[in-house]
Every structure is written in C-alpha cells, then in structure tokens.
C-alpha cells in the first residue's frame, strides 16, 4: 500500500479477499499447533530443569523443573503474541498515529518540543504529526506494510519488497518542503523540515532504521530518540512557541 493511507479503511481489508483476513484466519487455525509445540517445549524444559536440579543437588527439584517449564512456555507464548501484535496496524486493529503520538509526547513533551497531530495545508498535502522543537522541525507519517515486505535501500534508492519507494519518498519530501515554505513565510524564521515515516509493520533491517531519497523510515519507538539526538540548537524557546502557534493557526486540522 505504498503511497496510500492506512487509515482510510477499505472494505476489502475485512473480506475473504484481503491479505489481512487470510493472515488472521491462518493465525486462528494455527492455534492448536502452537499449543502442541508449546507443550513439547515445556516438557523439554521440565526434563532439563529436573536434570539440572539433580546434577547440582538443588532442593525442591520438581518445583525447579516446573518453574523452568513454565518459563519456557511463557517465553514461547510471548514471542508468538508479540509477532501477531506487531501486525495490528496493518490489520486495521490499531491506529498508527495514536501509537506514535503517545510515544512522541511521552518522550519529547518535557524537553520543549511541541507536537501537532493531523495537519494539512488547506486543500493540499497532509501529515500525521508535526514536531517543532529546539533541534528543528520534523513531519512524521505512519505507514504499515505486510509482515513479509522487506524495506531496504539499494544503490541509494528506497524499496518496499520489489517495488520502488520513490513515490512515497517524493510525496513526503514535497510535503515537508511545502510546510517549511508556509512556516517560513508566515513567521520570518527560516525553516527546514526533516520528513520521517514511522513503520508499524514490515521487515526492517537490524536497528530498525532506513534512510534513502531524502526520507527516513524507522520503528515508531525510535522517532523521538532520533529527534532528541539532533544536537544543533536550531531554535530558541520563543521561536519554538512562535512556530507552533503559527502552525496551529495556518495548518488545517484533519
């Protein structure tokens, strides 16, 4: 769904023809297999725990073995649950902008950053989050691809699986430039905006960050960290307030 909005719910997503529907169907059908495998792993954990308890002459050897079996089962359950939960935005069960907005506010609000959600230039491009702070200005959109879509760069170009990501990158870079131009014009403060995409589902490289074609894609939890890592003091507190006030006035809420 590159270039599209993940928040415009399409009927096909909830029908038997959609990848999301099939993903949830196969997940439910695989429940019995997961439970059987978990029981086997717990039994192996029990055997290993009992053997270790006997080998090292530990007291309450059976209780020790049961504890290890329970720990193995719990770890396996959490691993499968976390993988399924990671697809929630792609499946339309959670809202990506809500997740990212909470992360941004909890990490940046106390450090002098202002976060405006759901903004657009009237009748033109829109974004999910506009972040204004001492280190600069960022726009952040939320996107989600299927769990097996590899997000990577080759030769300086962005790819989503086998598809070029130029359309996504160009669209957000152009939106950032349009926002920057409007803020510069209305405030008299030179503004350059850094565009980002918070990726809620998709195969990201180790570290959870990809940069290409003027765009940075990263896991939602990394956005605030990357923003705070910007060491340059681009704006004073008064300038931050001015930019935030003008942005709230001039940019339409969506």
Structural summary, described in words:
With 254 residues, the protein is α+β, with helices and mostly antiparallel strands. It is built from seven helices and ten strands. The strands form two sheets. The protein has a seven-stranded mixed β-sheet, sandwiched between helices. It has a three-stranded antiparallel β-sheet with strand order 4-5-6, covered by helices on one side. α4 runs parallel beside α6. The longest helix is centred in the N-terminal third of the chain and has 25 residues. It is elongated. InterPro entries: NERD. It comes from Nonomuraea typhae. Keywords: Membrane, Transmembrane, Transmembrane helix.
pLDDT below 50 for ≥5 consecutive residues: which ranges?
Answer: 1-9
**Average pLDDT reading:** 92
Order of adjacent strands in the largest pleated sheet: 8-9-7-3-2-1-10
Largest sheet descriptor: 7 strands, mixed
Helix-strand pattern, N to C? HHHHEEEEEEHEEEHHE
User: What structural class results from the helix and strand content?
Assistant: alpha+beta
Specify the helix fraction band.
Answer: 40-55%
Q: What would you report as the Rg, rounded to the nearest angstrom?
A: 23 Å
Count of β-strands: 10
The total of helices stands at 7
